[in-house]
């Protein structure tokens, strides 16, 4: 298969196969697809554990929506001529460490973990997506904007937290623990995946040469987003 | 809310609120919705346990499809003026006994359990659906016909079983255990839910008065379908 930069329409948004740009796009798309698959698995497990039938029904809908989002990303990987299964497999264990280090002790901790964990991961992918070709970027941003499960977490945690000062204090602490571990995941990803470093650098500057401060800016941005997210729950980040 | 038998179009397919027919329809729709929800939960758990990424992706799609099917049934319950959450809640623990009695010992046993268990449940609901008003019947039959997860089980079990005589023999035994327990679930449902007995009776005869032999016919039919299902896998029922 060959593609050219001179093509128009959909073709023009597909980076040439074998190019660095192409390989980097497949890396980020693979990560996003894996994160949506993990979101499906977590939401499905949350549905099984949820205290009420209404929550079980709602969480299963969120799980199904994550499958649809993941498949939109997989379709893009196929579209640019790469193997979607291989791209997802490359990130197979991406959150295993995070999960092992942060076993939630209650339903509320579980909800907050999803909210904070997905939040950091989504923000990271959104920033890296700025370095993608236009077509892939559009898919990633659309998928991340659709991730509506945060709404449930916010509504529930807000209702529970505002009525219970001890819970609020405990959850604020848990949130700090979670964001530390989540930023650790991002740190390890950047060490292991030069493609992601290149995308973040490309996205954060108009110069394609990676500026040395791109990762620092990235962590500043991720932390600021986390603080805003916790504030929505009335929790101190 | 009032509905009349004299209405035309969609209205004509809605049994009058408060009628026995109406209450019976809500019972069966609640059971079907619960079974689809259970299917979602099982398929999602299967996805987490599946040996390959391809299977994990495929099973998550089946899980998402079960959510869509369940929601089609819930929409029908709303349409006929009943509370969908209450209708599902009524069957909350419907497969708990079945699950406790049949813990699968391997991936293959798990696959066969889903195939046999869902098979019997679907067949039962299909037969009882014959006693429903036309609109509700159409929804139930459409939902049951879409249940495509059986295809995966058949393909996988067929491939594995044909290469391994010991596995085949063991699975045939497991299948007999499963169908016995599944028919036990149907038996208990008929004892606990007179509405389901009325629907089966209505569906199996042109006389609306329940013939005394309807349950016997039902179990004969369920067993015959199970035998056909096992034969598709090359297993003796």
Automatic annotation (TrEMBL), chains A, B:
Q: Where is the Ferritin-like domain?
A: 25-200
Q: What Pfam families does the record tag this protein with?
A: MiaE_2
Highest taxon listed in the record's lineage = Bacteria
Q: Under which name does UniProt file this protein? A: Ferritin-like domain-containing protein
| Naturally occurring in which organism (per UniProt) | Cellulomonas humilata
Q: Taxonomic classification, please?
A: Bacteria, Bacillati, Actinomycetota, Actinomycetes, Micrococcales
């Amino acid at each position: 298969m060959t593609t050219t930069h001179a093509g128009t329409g959909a073709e023009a948004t597909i980076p040439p196969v074998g190019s660095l740009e192409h390989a980097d796009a497949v890396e980020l798309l693979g990560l996003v697809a894996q994160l949506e698959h993990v979101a499906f698995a977590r939401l499905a497990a949350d549905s099984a554990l949820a205290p009420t039938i209404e929550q079980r029904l709602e969480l299963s809908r969120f799980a199904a929506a994550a499958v649809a989002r993941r498949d939109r990303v997989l379709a893009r990987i196929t579209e640019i001529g790469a193997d979607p299964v291989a791209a997802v497999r490359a990130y197979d264990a991406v959150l295993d460490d995070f999960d092992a280090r942060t076993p939630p002790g209650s339903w509320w901790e579980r909800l907050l973990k999803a909210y904070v964990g997905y939040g950091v991961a989504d923000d990271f992918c959104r920033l890296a997506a700025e370095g993608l070709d236009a077509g892939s970027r559009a898919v990633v941003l659309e998928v991340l904007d659709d991730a509506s499960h945060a709404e449930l977490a916010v509504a529930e945690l807000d209702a529970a937290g505002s009525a219970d000062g001890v819970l609020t204090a405990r959850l604020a602490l848990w949130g700090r623990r979670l964001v530390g571990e989540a930023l650790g995941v991002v740190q390890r990803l950047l060490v292991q995946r030069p493609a992601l470093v290149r995308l973040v650098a490309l996205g954060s500057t108009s110069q394609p040469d990676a500026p040395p401060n791109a990762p620092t800016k990235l962590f500043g941005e991720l932390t600021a987003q986390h603080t805003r997210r916790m504030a929505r729950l009335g929790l101190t980040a």
